[in-house]
Write a structure and sequence with these properties.
The protein is α+β, with helices and mostly antiparallel strands. The chain folds into three domains: 7-80, no CATH class; 116-225, Beta Barrel (Butyryl-CoA Dehydrogenase, subunit A, domain 2), CATH 2.40.110; 235-379, Butyryl-CoA Dehydrogenase, subunit A, domain 3 (Up-down Bundle). 45% of the residues lie in helices and 15% in strands. Strands 1-4-5-8 form a four-stranded mixed β-sheet. A four-stranded antiparallel β-sheet has the order 2-3-7-6, with no helix packed on it. Helix 11 (309-332) packs antiparallel against helix 13 (369-379). Bound molecules: flavin-adenine dinucleotide. Residues 117-121, 126-127, 153-155, 205, 361, 364-365, 367-368, 370-371, 374 line the site of flavin-adenine dinucleotide.
Length: 385
């Protein structure tokens, strides 16, 4: 296994750095000039969709180039794309969708004009997702399904134009069978979205109620009853993405800068040994995680699968994200208390509590930590079934 970058990889790294330097909007422009940024990425030859295969317009990066690309983008905190279309639905359509579905949906996903949300979880079906009960019944003439049920924790359903849903078309046999993957427009009169306000005080997740939603069979992806297979194959990639390693590298550097700006007597918080130790531990763990990712890339370069290390990355990556938010909270001290109102004291303190509270969810979504530990125990440590 070789985890050193080759000469070509180092050249590529230079190219990515130069591109960011030239094109990334700065300061307050960063979020308002998103479109310009994504246009530049697109013109560069599919850099806006780095993980898509060449035949769908992707840049054809090798696994190592993808790592370098993600690392450089993460370190500069470049604007992210919403994950549901580009990262989740698109690969399912590419692998299992019809040509018509690919032609119809992929362009809107790529240019961001159509927002998607993910309707998997339900009350009573989260970690044990195969328990889902949202029912889709095929009409007698076989032209459409009628869908009834409830989805929950649906991120950004309130701004989504479409939802991709796992539904139950049969209750016979093992519960993983009889699950069907359907696409529905959110403006259907049978779809109602109700907000859930989370601990951090923000509105990003929702309940979605489905009442007699009529879905044409053309909106079914793949075969009836095979939805579980389609959804499951992509979980490994979703987990790797959720680890957010490169972004944590950036966030930790930022937390250190913040701590340097906080005075403690004649020193700064960064000079306080207890705080410094925490930063040091986090840096070491983050570096270890980067090496885990590199090992997984080395195996992918040799044709292997990402495999169960995606669970290690999800588990550790999200814990690290939470611990960085704890450092920010500690740096803000009492000034973190009036969150959600006007800043008092340090300017950075305003987002510290909401960041900390909002970040609790990272070890739940995309498969809770306990579930990842189960996967690691069985598939990495071979601790039996
Ligand atoms: C902010 C946020 C955004 C989300 N966005 C979406 C979305 O867009 N679309 C979507 O479909 N879903 C979404 N989810 C749902 C998410 O995937 C589920 O919350 C997650 O899978 C856990 O399911 P659950 O909430 O039903 O908890 P449960 O599965 O009921 O788990 C409760 C607790 O029991 C533990 N547990 C469960 N099973 C085991 C086991 N076998 N062994 C040991 N411990 C276990 C869990 O780790 C957890 O601590 C989101 C969740 C959050 C919090």
């Amino acid at each position: 296994m070789d985890i050193e970058f080759s000469k070509e990889d180092l050249e590529f790294q230079k190219e990515v750095r130069a591109f960011i330097e030239k094109n990334l909007p700065t300061g307050t422009e960063l979020w308002t000039k998103r479109t310009r940024w994504f246009d530049a990425l697109r013109k560069k030859g599919g850099w806006d969709i780095p993980k898509w295969p060449v035949e769908f317009g992707g840049p054809g990066f090798t696994p190592t180039q993808r790592y370098i690309f993600d690392m450089e983008m993460g370190r500069c905190n470049t604007p992210p794309q919403l994950p549901f279309g580009v990262g989740m639905l698109a690969p399912i359509l590419m692998n299992y969708g019809s040509k018509e579905q690919q032609d119809r949906f992929l362009p809107g996903i790529r240019d961001g004009s159509v927002n998607w949300c993910q309707g998997y979880s339900e009350p009573g079906a989260g970690s044990d997702l195969a328990n889902l009960r949202t029912k889709a019944e095929l009409s007698e003439d076989g032209t459409h399904y009628v869908v009834n049920g409830q989805k929950t924790w649906t991120t950004l359903a309130h701004i989504a134009h479409w939802i991709f849903c796992l539904t139950r078309t049969s209750g016979d046999g093992p519960k993983q069978e009889g699950i069907t993957f359907l696409l529905m427009p959110m403006d259907d009169p049978g779809i109602e979205v109700k907000p859930i306000i989370t601990l951090g005080g923000s509105h990003s997740v929702n309940d979605v109620y489905l009442t007699d939603v009529k879905v044409p069979v053309e909106n079914r992806v793949g075969e009836e009853g095979k939805g579980w297979t389609y959804a499951k194959g992509l979980l490994i990639h979703e987990r790797t993405g959720l680890a957010g390693i490169q972004n944590s590298v950036w966030a930790l550097e930022k937390a250190k800068d913040t701590a340097r700006s906080v005075k403690v007597g004649k020193r700064t918080l960064m000079d306080v040994p207890m705080f410094r130790n925490k930063v040091g531990e986090l840096e070491a763990e983050l570096m270890a995680l980067e090496f885990t990712e590199l090992r997984s890339l080395a195996s992918a370069s040799e044709g292997g699968d990402p495999g169960p290390e995606s669970s290690i990355m999800k588990l550790k990556g999200t814990e690290i994200q939470q611990r960085i938010s704890e450092l920010n909270l500690e740096a803000a001290g009492i000034y973190a208390a009036p969150w959600g109102t006007q800043a008092v004291g340090h300017k950075f303190a305003r987002g510290a509590t909401s960041g900390y509270l909002g970040g609790r969810a990272t070890t739940i979504y995309g498969g809770a930590s306990e579930v990842q530990k189960d996967v690691i125990a069985k598939n990495v440590l071979d601790l039996g079934s």
